[in-house]
TrEMBL record:
Name of the protein in its database record: Deazaflavin-dependent oxidoreductase (Nitroreductase family)
GO cellular component, one term: plasma membrane
Catalysis performed (reactions): oxidized coenzyme F420-(gamma-L-Glu)(n) + a quinol + H(+) = reduced coenzyme F420-(gamma-L-Glu)(n) + a quinone
Organism: Thermosporothrix hazakensis
GO molecular function, one term: oxidoreductase activity
Length: 141
């Protein structure tokens, strides 16, 4: 898929998500969230549809990129600008993205794979350890 086609699809999913208040299905029929961040280099606003992986009162963001050998662009955005906004359809809230490591990452990844089974396959397809961020709710300022 060309980058233009990918961007058009990406934008259509975001528009549909917002028009239908989050009642949009992602791959394999899974629910989605929207992750709003800033570009790592530009500082410009960016929105990414991600699989919805609730984790207690927070959410996980799994940088799987379908098992590709490289991380998705938003991975670098979160490292540079961890203050984000999460849209679930039912609510929008500020969050801080924290990269998980070690056992904490492994436990979170197993949880994510229990919600969206392809995550297990994606890890097997790549030599990189797929990063997982905890999107921790922040109190409204």
């Amino acid at each position: 898929m060309s980058s233009t086609s990918w961007n058009e699809l990406h934008n259509r999913v975001i528009e549909e998500f917002r028009a239908k208040h989050g009642k949009v299905k992602g791959p394999e029929g899974g629910a989605l969230i929207l992750l709003n961040t800033k570009g790592a280099k530009t500082g410009q606003p960016r929105t990414y549809p991600l699989m919805s992986v609730p984790y207690g009162e927070n959410y996980l963001a799994v940088a799987s990129k379908g098992g590709a050998p490289s991380n998705p662009h938003w991975y670098y955005n979160l490292l540079a600008h961890p203050d984000v906004t999460v849209e679930t359809g039912a609510e929008t809230f500020p969050a801080k993205a924290r990269l998980l490591t070690g056992e904490e990452r492994d436990k979170a990844y197993a949880h994510a794979a229990s919600i969206f089974a392809p995550y297990a396959e994606y890890q097997q397809k790549t030599t990189r350890v797929i990063p997982v961020f905890l999107l921790e709710r922040q109190k409204n300022k």
